[in-house]
Amino acid sequence: MTTKKPPPVIEKKVERKEVVYQVFTRLFGNTNTTNKPWGTIEENGVGKFNDFTDKALKAIKDLGVTYIWYTGVPHHATVTDYTKYGISNDDPDIVKGRAGSPYAVKDYYNVDPDLAVNPANRLKEFEALIARTHKNGMKVIIDIVPNHIARKYEGKSNPPGVRDFGADDKTNVEYDRNNNFYYIPNESFQVPTSDTYKPLNGEQNPLIDGNFYEKPAKWTGNGSRQAKPDINDWYETVKVNYGIKPDGSKDFPTLPEGFDQKSFQEHYAFWKGKDVPNSWKKFRDIALYWTAKGIDGFRYDMAEMVPYEFWSYMNSAIKMKNPSAFLLAEVYNPNEYRNYIRLGKMDYLYDKVDLYDHLKQVIYGKALPDPISGIQERYSDIEHHMFHFLDNHDEQRLASSAFAGTPEKGKPLMVVSTTLSTSPTMVYFGQELGEAGNEDAGFGKPTRTSIFDYIGVPTIQRWANDGMYDGGKLTDSEKDLRDFYKRLLNFSINSSALMGKYQQIQSINRESTTGYDEGIYSFVRWSDSQKLIIVSNFSWVTTSNFELKIPENIIKEWHLKDGTYPIKDQLYNKTTAELKVVNGTGTVNITITPSESFIFSL
Questions:
Q1: 3-class DSSP assignment, residue 524
Q2: Which residues, in sequence order, are bridge partners of residue 74?
Q3: What DSSP designation does 121 have?
Q4: pLDDT tens per residue across span 441-460
Q5: Does residue 6 have a cis peptide bond before it, meaning omega lies within 30 degrees of 0?
């Protein structure tokens, strides 16, 4: 006889949907429209913390946003000269783009000098933004990138007693448990070469000579053990050692059996007094430093490249300081999802590999929407933790030619992504305006808004309207799209049904409903006080007419007797219909146009 495990501990009651607005901070307030490929900060301009005015923040909140993820805040390597502020120049041979990757962090205890009106005062300017965001009713998320740091890391802002990464390493060995890095003894780092890429596009620069002194060479951020990494490796970064030996074995205490059922308090108690690798302590202290400054949560880059035992150690320490901290991880291996949630104490993981990837295939016309039901069922025990998005800094823009092709085709994807589960929803800045990322920025190429270059974002610039933040220069179609997002997101954060139960009605309608065309997807959501029928049309050419079936078990769950019940669409409050219940089974007559969605409320 086997004993069934109890359900995992639920540590906090979640009462509403959360909406995260990811904004690439450097680009948001940039009013310069030059957009020259590889342009300098003087040529192409740059946004500042101060561009997030009270008016801008109020407009973002009014969109239906509860958290802002300010991307690219920690001080990272850049080619721009800030030597007069005591910051050393970075070598363009190991910087991607001119502005630099936000994921090659150079100093974890300070912020990007690009973002400050006065770079000498940059930390205080960011602290003011944290306070301003809170005043406007939203919480703040920033990045922590634990797997790797900039190849030329310089902790010039370290608090008293904090030793720099690598300062105490034994550099004559490949691995030591308390080394912060992995080494290639007796070999020097060599800059990768390519026939198709030149730093700064071949521009003359006194530091560009094909050399960067690093001896012994360190492993590269993505795990390359070559002294000369490939041009496609993350050569601008070095891999951080968390006590994983080169053979892959673990050199630290592991969590006892059953700790997937334990609370963060119990995880914290387990690690207290344990001997852990030095890198664990360094990143825990970094996270607690920012938590003390009022940061409400973190987005962890490439979290699955770091062992979940470390996450248990760090996340439990964060939760002890702020039990409601929002901890989001980039994890792409479905086989590890539950480990990172239950053992690593993550709140949320990217739902990319299944939901996002499938929605992309649907809009390409390569797949039916029906497997969405199976995806939701597969993760039913962790559905709240599967973070939904359609656009972010790594992915091709939703409205780009490489994805939906038009903002309108993205609408049904957004409705399903937002309403399918209890998990948070994310919008990437400009997504709500149909930003297509068409600019050739230099290192960053079209269909993604570049995170490596100084560039302007045309839709955001039109919406910002020279600091008015009133949409004054938007086209009519951009205004309509933003209105759609505003309606959908505000509905989602105020809907009790979206924090309640889910059931797909796709199978029964696919099998037996006449006119239920290939692009249609439907499901129901409900709470004690709200019942929703959600129907989306992924087709961009077909208007569908059908009699939607609501199965008997749902009618019974909703305590509906035979009769006729008026239902009304909650997106635009214009379309009405009737739910007819006969012999315990419901039907609704639906006419739905291309790319249209209805959120009918009973």
A1: strand
A2: 111
A3: G
A4: 999 999 999 999 999 999 99
A5: no
